[in-house]
Design goal:
Oligomer: heterodimer
Shape of chain B: globular
Helix content of chain A: over 70%
Strand content of chain B: 15-25%
CATH topology of chain A: ABC transporter involved in vitamin B12 uptake, BtuC
Largest interface: A-B, 24 and 35 residues
Distance between the termini of chain B: 41 Å
Number of helices of chain B: 11
Radius of gyration of chain A: 19 Å
Mean pLDDT of chain B: 89
Number of domains of chain B: 1
Mean pLDDT of chain A: 94
Distance between the termini of chain A: 51 Å
Order of helices and strands of chain A: HHHHHEHHHHHEHHH
Largest sheet of chain B: 6 strands, mixed
Structural class of chain A: mainly alpha
Structural class of chain B: alpha/beta
Radius of gyration of chain B: 19 Å
CATH class of chain A: Mainly Alpha
Helix content of chain B: 25-40%
Order of helices and strands of chain B: EEEHEEHEHHHHEHEHEEHHH
CATH superfamily of chain B: P-loop containing nucleotide triphosphate hydrolases
Shape of chain A: globular
Low-confidence stretches of chain B: none
Chain lengths: 302, 273
């Protein structure tokens, strides 16, 4: 069953590496109720920063950390637009995303940077473990990083600040009434989210052997699809299980995509299929209510 | 103002909405109010009288017009920002959904209330000590919530959520408690329960309280002082003795005399039964 194992291992790796994006999206969309579209820009930003640092001789781990830090800055930008200039969250994210397109091009200097001959974190780990830099190694690296990230995030979301952050998305008026500076928690959450997304971009770029200006297109929809699938399959209720469910959802999404591609779906149709998937998932609750003759208010515009 | 020992002082507070447009509303018109420590004041008035605006200003949701002042325990808190008011002010809203966070557990909600106005750090928010405190304050409610600390608040009934909101508003003993028509949306039985709980907590904890209500009967029965608002002003202010033997009818007459207008809010009169 070579076909099956390769499909599974690819999905596991992708589920984990894009799981960071999904957790980032979960953080903004679900925890903070802040629909942040910066993601499409901060994902290639992570790839760009890591790639440029690596080809200039920097340590790949340092480059990866730098990508995380720069991603945090991107999120900082979006959340400051929203909290300090009172720009609508969606628009703030779009503005940042568009700005990042130019910024990413400036950082990279061209639209694609190959990393095939450079030493990445995957090569370094392969050397230490004495194994080939193949898919198994990719899985080992991403499993370790994901476990660390999940552990830290799970702990953080149960701390006093983490609780305040979750409450900000749940009931902003209440939590402000309890003495939480909701501007600060929003800034913190959106920054952290984009840090995770950029980290994912840095890992993906190093694993695939290049950083590309267009590699973030549709990332937000993909992350949202993963979150929705994870919630749909696992129906998690507590934070710990939610985090695991989001990773599980990313894995399931990647598995669907892998199967579809192997069945002959042209890769160019992938984003269309993903968009349709998210549209269906978002429309189902409305259609269900309509069938029960319930009244549903019009969608929010701004 | 100099030899004033009031817990809460409201000085020359006005609030104008939609200034400079045809919709300009003077929601509060030069309010002055001294609230003494352990006062339990009921606030009544028709729709648009400014009751909620007054509470919003005390809670810091928005600042008053320039020149107005809000002083609690000698600290001028007029312009410090809403989240900083939390140290001094606990509030229960009309809608139970506003006072509690649905996607978090009972324990997490209370943990946030215990941290009211304190700096938040990277300690775990729930601890055994906080859990015990939560159980102790929930047990007297008689709703069994002390055994449901891990339940998501969104699965509780409106009455249970409002009772929880009340506990959350008072658990860290803020200087002043604001009850903003907090039983108006509950069914009669639950409303009665929450009202009784409020009185018990206010009396036991000696909370200084402002309770806005639409119900004149309640306004007379509860508290040691009653104020009535009309068109952004306080038109009636009665102490314990003055309101002791009053009926709703007396109150209507007092209102008409003070405001110079006919009492015309059916919703208030209809509550009287």
């Amino acid at each position: 069953m070579d076909f099956f194992t390769s499909l599974m291992s690819t999905s596991v790796y992708e589920g984990l590496v894009y799981g960071f994006v999904a957790i980032g999206v979960y953080f903004t969309f679900r925890v903070l109720s802040f629909p942040d579209l910066t993601v499409d820009g901060s994902f290639p930003l992570g790839g760009a920063v890591a790639a440029v640092l690596i080809i200039n001789g920097s340590d790949p781990w340092l480059a990866t950390l730098a990508a995380l830090a720069v991603g945090i800055c991107a999120g900082l930008g979006t959340s400051l637009l929203n909290t300090k200039l009172r720009i609508n969250a969606l628009l703030a994210g779009i503005l940042m995303m568009v700005a990042l397109y130019s910024i990413n091009l400036m950082i990279m200097g061209r639209s694609n940077i190959p990393l095939l001959r450079e030493v990445t974190i995957f090569d370094q780990v392969a050397q230490v473990l004495g194994m080939r830099a193949d898919i198994n190694l990719s899985i080992i690296v991403t499993v370790v990083l994901s476990v660390i990230a999940l552990f830290v995030l799970n702990w953080f979301l149960h701390t006093e600040i983490g609780l305040a952050l979750r409450a900000t998305g749940d009931n902003e008026q209440m939590v402000r009434g309890l003495g939480v500076n909701t501007d600060m928690t929003t800034i913190l959450g959106v920054s952290l989210s984009n840090g995770l997304v950029a980290l994912s971009g840095a890992l993906v770029a190093q694993n695939q052997g290049f950083s590309d200006l267009g590699m973030g297109i549709g990332m937000i929809v993909m992350g949202l699809a993963s979150v929705i699938i994870g919630e749909g399959i696992f129906r998690p209720r507590k934070i710990t299980t939610i985090l695991l469910a989001v990773i599980g959802g990313t894995f399931a999404y990647r598995l669907f995509v892998g199967i579809a591609l192997r069945l002959g779906l042209p890769p160019t149709n992938l984003k269309l299929i993903t968009a349709v998937l998210v549209i269906i998932a978002l429309a189902i609750p409305y259609i269900q209510k309509k069938l029960r003759h319930e009244w549903v208010p019009p969608a929010v515009r701004m | 103002m100099s030899k004033n020992n009031s817990l809460l002082q409201i000085r020359e507070v006005s609030k104008i909405f939609s200034r400079g447009t045809v919709d300009e509303v003077r929601a509060l018109d030069n309010i002055n109010l001294d609230v003494n420590s352990e006062d339990f004041i009921t606030v009544i008035g028709s729709n648009g009288a400014g009751k909620t605006t007054l509470l919003n200003i005390v809670a810091g949701v928005y600042p008053p017009e320039r020149g107005g002042k809000v002083i609690i325990n000698g600290n001028d808190i007029t312009n410090i920002g809403e989240y900083k008011h939390a140290r001094y002010v606990g509030r229960v809203y009309q809608d139970p959904h506003i006072g509690t966070a649905a996607k978090m557990t009972v324990e997490e909600n209370l943990a946030m209330a215990i941290m009211r106005g304190k700096p938040r750090g990277l300690r775990l928010a729930t601890s055994r000590q906080r859990r015990e405190l939560s159980s102790t304050v929930l047990a007297p409610l008689g709703l069994g919530l002390e055994n449901r600390l891990n339940t998501l608040v969104g699965t509780l009934s409106g009455g249970q959520r409002q009772a929880l909101a009340l506990v959350m508003a008072t658990i860290s003993k803020p200087a002043i408690l604001l009850l903003d028509e907090h039983i108006a949306t509950l069914d009669p039985k639950t409303a009665q329960l929450v009202l009784e709980l409020s009185e018990v907590i206010v009396t036991q904890e000696k909370m200084t309280t402002l309770m806005v209500t639409h119900n004149m009967e309640l306004a007379l029965r509860y508290g040691n002082r009653l104020i009535m608002m009309h068109e952004g002003r306080i038109v009636v202010d009665m102490n314990q003795e003055q309101k002791a033997n009053l009926t709703v009818n007396d109150l209507v007459i007092a209102f008409e005399r003070a405001s110079g207008s006919k009492f015309a809010d059916d919703s208030i009169l209809l509550h009287h039964n």
